[in-house]
């Protein structure tokens, strides 16, 4: 099948999936979990071949260690995966939830209900564990799914895909979860804006950027995470040090790690050296904006909007909360921004004024995450302003439909004065 | 200013607007309404020049009558406009509404709140009355706005824009509502996917299609409205005739008008001739699908997915509700689909199974409209599945932000076992 044929078949299969009731869709998921459990040997054997090839590729300099690190599927990862599929089956039913309901007039009842989007395309690198998680989310939410994995995980992905689709029959066509292979297929897939509704890239910023630039299909994700912590004039010193360290060092490669530290200039003398020492003590390279560099003897930061993605950050002085917000709007990526302060007015100004997916007060930027937010399974984190923003759970895989039930109601009758609109909200 | 400079200024002005409280934003709207009221002469004089030029252009064959018909701004239209602006001021506050709230752990409180999207671009043809309505919606929802009107309404749009921006000072920068002129500007605007968040085209299907094909910015709207009425085996004959007539003839040029009539083959003999006669009696040209054409002696429809947009439609026979749904999915545009039946099971199957923005049972397709749905001011009707679907009210101009309030909470403390996530929903 061509990618287009796979996408068209995925839409039809998704529609079949949507007609199953909640119990039936959950039963399919539990079968998938059981099948994964029963096929550990097959999956692990396929994965071992990918891992072995990756080791050679790393040694030859053809693959990064980071990519290779995300390949293995040890037993404990399979355990977590299988548990994850069961947890997704146990979540509240996502489809058909009433968003709003309203009587338009006597006997004319309107409901807006949640519905599957249609066809999702997931493009992922390495991490074959993404495949069953995403497949489970798609099955739960009635979406047809196209999976395009990386070459480095070909055998792992094929094995996982074979096991999952083997558990779908008889209710769900195998086309509901479709694996697309070959590098050339990506370009073809990204051109299918008439049959694919949403692209979710899971991988490097470079991958996400390339996809965003190469398609008219909406993309859910973020290419960059340039997050800041602003330490206000009224910051508690201990909290500031602790939050800055956590935001930078807990997992420096994460998109929600701090890249820029903003310090109110009134605290430059007491907190500046303490923050720099604490960061350096933890192994962080601290660069400085023009003023901070000379004041604290720091190397000058080449670009204040840089995403270091490792143990480095830039420190800048700002005049006040307004200055911090202006800096964040100029250099940030709209991901997560934090203020450290004991002043409720400053906190309020920052929470109300910062235009970003996540805005935090006295909490580490590292909390910007679907699991930590309590969303259950995470689809991704979006810095877009359309559809879904910030950490996205299964809600990001849904749209709505409007259902109207009448008894022969016509607009002509309204115009003739036989009845009039009388909108009443239904709870 | 270049279009890019206008867009950047609109984002900054939008952010200023967002920091105003609800009362202040409403006060601005009421000033806009008063200014429009006080400037009727100026607006009507400018409009009269556009209308006079349009009459010449129509006579010369350089403009369609339909476009010219949407130009005039008589006093009663201005009345409605001014009332509309005041009604938008009186609507419930759209910004800062709590969508969900959850405690993540002791003292760590998460809220997802509604927020302005950022910068909207409205591209509209003729109908200068769209300008103040959209401007009022954007001001109410804290969005910066770029308006690109048609050449035929240049003087009307300039006058309306001058009056509106004159009423914004001192709190709101004039750049919050920005008029972009010149045909070349459209291409430039549609390339600004880094500063414009959403495009809303108001005009012909051709305009919407061209915009959808020409930009990576999300587009809210619909290029086509190919809606069907399916008359089921268990349809009440009188309701069927009345709903079919209303759906086709109430306003045949509307996007929610019926283009395809599907008839269950068991009702071909009793209802077929009656429906054809009723439609013809109302002046509708009835074409037929291959089977219906020969059975009822109708001209054969060239394309079953055609949007007639006037007093014509296509009649097709289908085997059952499944056949009707398959037809709708193949030929429809995902706008509005209706089933006429007294059989609750058939209604349920159709309401659950049809993949469209609006699915109706025993109600005219003409109800698919923001005003009739009770949404207040209408932004447009979307057949997309991302962000907003169906008739869209002010909610379509909103995104959300996540606010997290803590007291020095770090992820490292969770890892050290000092506290654990304990998600509790807040009402």
Using brief descriptors, characterize the structure shown.
homodimer, 427 residues, alpha/beta, Aldehyde Dehydrogenase, Chain A, domain 2, 2 domains, 15 helices
Write up what this structure looks like.
Helices cover 41% and strands 22% of the residues of chain A. Chain A has 427 residues and is α/β, with parallel strands linked by helices. Chain A has 2 domains: 3-220 and 379-400, Aldehyde Dehydrogenase, Chain A, domain 1, CATH 3.40.605; 227-367, Aldehyde Dehydrogenase, Chain A, domain 2 (3-Layer(aba) Sandwich). A 6-stranded parallel beta sheet of chain A has the order 9-10-8-7-11-12, with helices on both faces. In chain A, strand 4, helix 7 and strand 5 form a beta-alpha-beta unit. In chain A, helix 2 (22-38) crosses helix 7, helix 5 packs parallel to helix 6 (130-140) and helix 10 packs parallel to helix 11 (268-281). The two termini of chain A are 47 Å apart. The model of chain A has no long low-confidence stretch (mean pLDDT 95). The interface between A and B is large, with 70 and 70 residues. Strand 12 (358-363) of chain A pairs parallel with strand 15 (398-409) of chain B, so a sheet runs across the interface.
Shape, principal axes of CA atoms of chain A: globular
Q: Please, what is the CATH homologous superfamily of the largest domain in chain A? A: Aldehyde Dehydrogenase, Chain A, domain 1
Specify the oligomeric state. Answer: homodimer
* Rg of chain A, nearest Å: 25 Å
**Total DSSP E strands of chain A:** 16
Major protein interface? A-B, 70 and 70 residues
Query: What is the CATH architecture term of the largest domain in chain A?
Result: 3-Layer(aba) Sandwich
């Amino acid at each position: 099948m061509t990618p287009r044929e796979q996408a068209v078949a995925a839409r039809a299969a998704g529609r079949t999936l949507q007609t199953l009731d909640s119990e039936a869709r959950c039963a399919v998921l539990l079968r998938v979990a059981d099948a994964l459990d029963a096929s550990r040997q097959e999956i692990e054997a396929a994965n071992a071949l990918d891992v072995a090839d990756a080791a050679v590729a790393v040694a030859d300099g053809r693959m990064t260690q980071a990519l290779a690190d995300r390949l293995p599927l040890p037993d404990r990862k399979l355990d977590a995966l299988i548990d994850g599929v069961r947890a997704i089956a146990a979540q509240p039913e996502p489809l058909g939830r009433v968003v709003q309901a309203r009587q338009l007039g006597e006997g004319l009842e309107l409901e807006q209900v949640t519905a599957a989007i249609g066809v999702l395309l997931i493009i992922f690198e390495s991490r074959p564990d993404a495949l069953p998680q995403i497949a489970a989310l798609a099955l739960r939410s009635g979406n047809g799914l196209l999976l395009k994995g990386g070459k480095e995980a070909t055998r792992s992905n094929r094995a996982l895909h074979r096991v999952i689709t083997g558990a779908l029959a008889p209710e769900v066509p195998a086309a509901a979860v479709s694996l697309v292979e070959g590098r050339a297929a990506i370009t073809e897939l990204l051109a299918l804006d008439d049959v694919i509704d949403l692209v979710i890239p899971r991988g490097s910023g470079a991958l996400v950027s390339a996809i965003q630039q190469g398609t008219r299909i909406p993309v859910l994700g973020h290419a960059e995470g340039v997050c800041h912590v602003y330490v206000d004039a009224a910051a508690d010193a201990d909290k500031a040090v602790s939050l800055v360290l956590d935001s930078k060092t807990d997992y420096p490669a994460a998109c929600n790690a701090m890249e820029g530290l903003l310090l109110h200039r009134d605290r430059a003398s007491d907190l500046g050296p303490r923050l720099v020492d604490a960061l350096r003590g933890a192994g962080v390279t601290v660069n400085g904006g023009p003023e901070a560099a000379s004041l604290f003897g720091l190397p000058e930061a080449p670009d204040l909007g840089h995403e270091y993605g490792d143990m480095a950050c830039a420190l800048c002085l700002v005049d006040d909360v307004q200055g911090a917000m202006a800096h964040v709007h100029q250099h940030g990526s709209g991901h997560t921004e934090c203020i450290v302060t004991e002043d409720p007015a400053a906190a309020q100004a920052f929470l109300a004024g910062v235009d970003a997916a996540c805005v935090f007060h006295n909490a580490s930027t590292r909390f910007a995450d679907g699991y930590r937010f309590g969303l259950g399974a995470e689809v991704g984190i979006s810095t877009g302003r359309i559809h879904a923003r910030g950490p996205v759970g299964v809600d990001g895989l849904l749209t709505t439909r409007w259902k109207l039930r009448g008894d022969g109601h016509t607009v002509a009758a309204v115009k003739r004065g036989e009845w009039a609109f009388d909108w009443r909200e239904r709870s």
